[in-house]
Amino acid sequence: MNNFDNKKIGIWGFGVVGSSALTFFDQWNVTSIEILNNKPVELPHTRNIVFATLQAPTTIHNFFENNDFILVSPGIPLHQYQSYAHKLISELDLFYHHNSSPTIAITGSLGKTSITHLLTNILQKMNLHTIAAGNIGYPMLQLISKLQTEKFDTIVLELSSFQLQQSQICSPDLAIITNIYDNHLDHHASIDEYIDAKFNIIKHQNSLKKALMPLELASLVNAKSLDHHHIIFFSASKPTQEQLSKLAPDTTIYYVDKNSIYKMVNQVTTLLLTISQLPPITFQTNFLIILAALDIQNISVQSVANILAQLDIPDHRLQKIASHHGSDFYNDSKSTVWQATLQAVNSMHHDKPIKLFLGGLSKGANREPLLQALQNKNIEVYAFGKEAELLGTICKKFNIAYAAHDTLQDSFDACVKNITQPSSILFSPAGSSYDLFDNYIDRGKKFVNMVTNYTKNIS
């Protein structure tokens, strides 16, 4: 991984990762760079020989045969190409090979983007030279060139299971797993494979490095042979004696109890912060993880209390976008798993009925538990997209009022026609966006535009 001179390089996929990979490899005196993509590619000017191939079964085989090293964009399934595993290199491993700055790496099914964003902002406001990279911020391969001239106090990485699955050397100074729910089962062969990919964030750490994860995942530490690692836990509630009895006495646990956040070591507790000191911009558990991460880095949590009030959250994450005639409109397009949607619903004002937009692709996960949890709430579901009828069938099973439509616009039009009293209109699809949209950002912007047009035209 030190030298790519005189090698044939293959890049599969030409999105953000693929284009940054081309820039990275073009620094070397390679023999050639082949880009394999599912649609035509407009190639930039390069110093090396670069050509593009349209993806097809025969061209994929030739692509693997003809290249010495191959970088595959995250999300492309590789199960049937394991005979070429010796040729695969990962974006994440290239980054770690060239990086010497301290890193905090964050993964999980839910919350990782918000936590990455907020933690990075806090560290920056403390005048620590910090940058976010990976799924948000800088592409990792693009960041490598900055590392040649800049030293960072901390690099905060948001990592997906796709990125972690291919990694052989990822070893952050602090690894954070926010949670693990059924997700991306259209890509991973099983939930066990998905969990293994997530735990790759810890696997290559040495004893000097630390990991933070939910207390409910403690049983997996032994199962994954990670008991020699420095594991720290967090919990949304005070740990029970039964839970504590299964841990080493000196285990550190951060938890919420009686509207305060505590740290426990050797069963001695220390108050870190009260919930009232947290701005209402994200879920409580996200702040629990952030404060734990700061404390683990030996940063006084009390010292950042004033900074917290200056924070904001990225768009498309339970974002209140309008109030109109007593009804509130929320854009939570980032919700791609049902657990995120349930959190969003539970955060709504209970004195208003909820009109919930569900849609997108389930990615192999079962969304029935979400609707089961909603069956006794004052809620109507507006299902849209490829799985709308399936969602409607589940709503019917739990006696939840629903309407199913092919498009989001049709769903939105039906919803606003049925607003007869002040309501909470929540766009939190609980699925990926790729049935109808480019990504969750495109989906969220389309919803925001619909709300803007509606509130502008309805007096």
TrEMBL record:
A Gene Ontology BP annotation from the UniProt entry: cell division
Which GO terms fall under molecular function for this chain's record?
A: ATP binding; UDP-N-acetylmuramoylalanine-D-glutamate ligase activity
Q: Which residues form the Mur ligase central domain?
A: 106-241
Q: Where is the signal peptide?
A: none
Q: Main localization of the protein?
A: cytoplasm
| Ligase keyword on record | yes
Q: Which UniProt keywords apply?
A: ATP-binding, Cytoplasm, Ligase, Nucleotide-binding
Q: Where in the cell is it found?
A: Cytoplasm
Query: Which pathway?
Result: Cell wall biogenesis; peptidoglycan biosynthesis
The terms describing its cellular component in GO are:
cytoplasm
User: What is the protein's name according to its record?
Assistant: UDP-N-acetylmuramoyl-L-alanine--D-glutamate ligase
Query: What is the species of this protein?
Result: Candidatus Chromulinivorax destructor
Instruction: Give the source lineage, highest ranks first.
Output: Bacteria, Candidatus Babelota, Candidatus Babeliae, Candidatus Babeliales, Candidatus Chromulinivoraceae
The encoding gene is murD
